[in-house]
Design a protein that fits this description.
The protein is an all-alpha fold and 444 residues long. It contains 17 helices and no strands.
């Protein structure tokens, strides 16, 4: 049977039902996000037990938390761009092996310096996994489902945080903190094996290397078996797979890149401030420790709901309106919490709603990042956006530490959270190109 015309990759992905191959790739990417959330949450829960056994004060855990986040920043900025050269699947496997192996090593750390180094290297692996998972899940999702799929992937992070809490509560009292890191190491190593066997490589990466290669032809036959065996595809206009960082600022993209980085940074300042300091701030308001734990758990549970709903909301209302509305809602909730911080009911209800708004907005920003850049440079673009966000995640806990050191009262601490949310909202409001479809790939 003769092929009547050349096809673009988007013809196969956007105009056909989603194949089992695509669903499998999407599911693996969601699991990567779950493991990211698992690791990020458990280190905070294990800190008291580790400090007691290794005999150093818990106040010294600040650099350990920061080391993991700095590692994530470096991983996002280094392993993200490398995927555009070596392949997204390859970098997902390498990243998963790295943070899985280092989590296992962390279980046997016996000194402060060993723990610090292990957390940094674990962060490098984590930082490289998420941007590549985002790029892959976007590539294999039809445009009509892309936002929903990306935001569903992002619900994996708060879901992983909840899973980390459950795992810690079950294992810590019986087997100690080492066992949690062992589980946290085995799971990503197992996922790396599953990825190697079942995850398809990026179709765009393969066609850029050689559109007639056996790997690419086989992938297309598995994704669309109804196509003729001699079907040919239009090779994208990109030449090669190397994507220099300067391309993020060329061709008028500098404005889009900066207006993405600002809300990415500011939203994660807020998110990580809440995750890191909510229990301590509530304790200073004379709430028992259990209230802080409940607030964080409900914040994560709200994040799952917000992430799942985000894609549908953006498709119905538009990206800009949805993100602006969520940031306004968060700012209003922060003001309400500053007024009613002494009420247990208000704290748990507002924490849940904050999780829906602020983590839903983060899922939306991740979806926006995947739409801004054409496919050939998506790994680089998303990697640097996530990296800039990681800087925000480092600054959030530091800002909380500074405010507590200055002895600000609870009302002023929560009110300060309105500032980064407002800056993020302004950047999104200025970027009027988000919803007008200018981020289409010219030839895919």
């Amino acid at each position: 049977m003769q092929a009547t015309r050349e096809l673009y990759l988007k013809d196969v992905i956007d105009q056909r039902p989603v194949s089992w191959l695509q669903w499998r790739a999407i599911a693996i990417c969601i699991l990567i996000a779950v493991l990211d959330g698992f690791d990020t949450q458990t280190i905070g829960m294990l800190a008291p037990a580790i400090s007691k056994e290794l005999a150093f004060p818990i106040s010294r855990f600040g650099p350990i938390f920061s080391a993991g986040l700095v590692g994530m920043l470096i991983g996002a900025m280094v392993l993200g761009p490398l995927a555009d050269k070596l392949g997204r699947k390859t970098m997902v496997i390498i990243s998963s092996i790295l943070f899985g192996a280092l989590s296992l090593v962390t279980a046997y750390a016996s000194t402060y310096d060993q723990l610090l180094l292990c957390r940094f290297l674990t962060g490098v692996g984590l930082g490289g996994a998420l941007p590549n998972a985002l790029a892959l899940v976007t590539e294999y999702s039809p445009k009509r489902y892309a936002r929903i799929v990306v935001t569903t992937l992002m619900c994996g992070m708060p879901l992983g945080a909840v899973l980390g809490g459950v795992t810690t509560s079950l294992l810590l009292p019986v087997h100690g903190w080492h066992s949690v890191f062992i589980v946290g190491g085995i799971l990503p190593l197992a996922l790396a094996l599953v990825t190697a066997v079942f995850m398809p490589e990026s179709a765009h990466f393969l066609i850029l290397k050689d559109s007639a290669s056996r790997r690419f032809v086989t992938l297309m036959q598995r994704m669309a078996p109804d196509l003729p065996s001699n079907q040919t595809f239009q090779v994208p206009s990109s030449h090669g797979t190397a994507v220099p960082i300067k391309e993020l600022f060329m061709g008028g993209r500098w404005r889009d890149t900066l207006l993405l980085w600002i809300p990415y940074f500011m939203n994660l300042v807020v998110l990580y401030f809440i995750v890191s300091w909510m229990p301590a701030v509530l304790l200073s308001a004379n709430h028992p420790v259990a209230v802080g734990i409940a607030a964080i758990s409900l914040f994560s549970a709200g994040g799952v709901l917000g992430s799942v709903l985000q894609g549908w909301l953006m498709n119905y209302f538009g990206v800009r309106k949805t993100l602006i509305a969520e940031l306004i809602i968060y700012a209003s909730l922060a003001f309400m919490l500053s007024v009613w911080s002494n009420s247990y009911v208000a704290v748990v209800v507002i924490s849940t709603l904050m999780g829906i708004a602020i983590q839903g907005a983060q899922a939306g920003l991740n979806a926006m990042a995947t739409e801004i850049y054409p496919t050939h440079m998506r790994g680089t673009g998303v990697g640097f956006a996530v990296g800039i966000g990681r800087i925000g995640s480092i600054c959030g806990p530091l800002a909380g530490s500074l405010m507590l050191a200055l002895h600000l009262d609870v009302a002023h601490i929560f009110l300060m959270g309105v500032v980064p949310a407002t800056l993020a909202m302004l950047a999104i409001a200025i970027n009027r190109r988000i919803d007008v479809g200018v981020y289409e790939d010219a030839a895919l």
